[in-house]
Amino acid sequence: MKTYHLFYFFLLLTIPVQACDLCGCSNGGSFFGILPQGHRGFMGVRYRYNSYHSHLNSLNLSSHEQFRTAELWGRFYPAKRLQVMAFVPYQFSRQTILKTGETIPLRGLSDVTALAHYNLINTFMDDSVVHTVNHSLLVGGGVKLPTGRYRYDENSLSDVANPNFQLGTGSTDWIGNLIYTARYKNWGMNADVSYRVTSTNPNGYRFGNRLNTSASVFYLASMGSKSIMPNAGVFVEQAGHDIRSGEVNKQTGGYATYLNLGAELYLNKLNLGVSYRKPVSQFLSEGELQANAQLTTHITFLF
Amino acid sequence: MITNSVVRIFLLALVTSATFVSCKKTEEDVIDPDTKNSVTVEFENRVGDQKLILGTTPYKNASGESFSLTALNYFVSNISLKNENGTVQKFPNQYFLVKQTDAKSKLITLKDVPSGNYTEMSFMIGVDSLKSVSPVTERTGVLDPTSYGDDGMYWSWNSGYIFLKIEGTSVAVPKTVNANQNFAIHVGGYGGGWNGSAKTVNNLRTITVPLTTKATVRANIAPEVHLFVDALKIFDGPNKLSLATTNSVHSPAVATPVAENYKTMFQVDHVHNNKQ
After folding, report:
1. Closest Cβ opposite residue B103 in set A14, A251, A286
2. What ipTM did this prediction achieve?
3. Buried b vs exposed e over A45-69: b needs ≥16 C-beta within 10 Å?
4. What confidence tens digit (pLDDT) does each residue in A20-30 have?
5. Domains and CATH numbers, chain A
6. Is the pLDDT of residue B193 over 80?
7. pLDDT at position A249, please?
8. Domain containing residue B128
9. A257: nearest CB among B22, B226, B270
């Protein structure tokens, strides 16, 4: 163990005091979108594409990061009012240096998240009264585990020496969230708030705490056993500054607001979904980072 | 009822956070020349488009010679900043030794810079003649000739400080020159004479680089100028230097082509003007 500690110590020594760690951070993870409704468990695969332009003002470092994530996700009900969710993402991403055209791949298991929610309010099942408007409020939280690789070699030409372009964050983070849904006839609204409290990873790096908020409206059109649910909404992400070896890196964190358009298709036990997010207002990494449009699709089996 | 109030608080929080992040900052920018702040200059050494990593990492020069580097050191002095009105702010009597082995040495902090929009930076590679001939008691810190240990930056036998040195290994270096095929290129020569001997050539070079993004010093903004230093230019500058022939430079007289080359190796990559 002692040798490991020494190793980290030397690793820290070789890291420059000040480095430009700009890069699209894909580590947000565990967002929900519009969850398949009903008191049913599910399992499926989500595919997410998002990209960033980094170091916008740099002659040599300007880059384009493309994050592609395939994610297994599932929901289970161990008890009536308790839902447990798990997210196992696998990334196949890459960074392209715009000046040279050089691309650096990033592939592997990312950070796994597990969440549990208690259904605090649910007028669908709380009483037998027929409500005009039905509410459901889920309160819960969970943990994001450091299952993705986060170590990089400062002395390698092929590694991206940037904590933001790794498969994981290296830290065990705690997440708290609320998911609220209201339904009136075929119309509904969904809102969720998720706050992530980070911790320092063994490299001495700590990502800023992160707040994700989203709100959307949807309409459910049914045709027999099939139904389609178009939806639209707003998604906001905010993150604090990262801390490297005790020093705050101001060129990190920020906010981005996205408009969201999507549709869910339900075919018996099959649920297909697509969602497109376009940034409308953002200020990330002191304006040195630009988030581009994102696309999420999923195929999920209800049981 | 509890249901409703929980829902209301929740929605309120949602709306508040959405409003908060969509607010635009519209502050008026006034330059108050009485306020000061610091400017940090980062020297990031590179080899072409690659990171500079000392040791065995292979690089290639324009002569097609493969090489690796074991040392890159240089003195930076006589820094000045020019603002958009043409006023030059000098930083006299400040000497810095940038060493690839020392991450901290690659960050130079200029203190008490008056608020302004700076568009150009100049600096000298080396130690000017006045300082070079000043009494040893005035040459302290990185200029202390006894402070270098095995990593010498001073020619005690003739011509003062080594302004820049680059060392490494290359198969292009003939084994008849160095059995281990090491090369060492040391540049110095401030144009003076040592103990009354003949004057050397003057290999001091001043580099002027434009700040493509202005460095906007304010009471609450301490800009960071990020320089890229391309060591490959030491071989592939205006003069094409081959390691087969230029592999052992230890006197001012033969170092001038090297100084002409490294004069071209500095580039401002970007400037950060972050509010504190």
Report:
1. A14
2. 0.73
3. ebebebbbbbbebbebbbbbbbbbb
4. 444 444 444 44
5. 27-302 (2.40.128.130)
6. no
7. 85
8. 30-272
9. B22
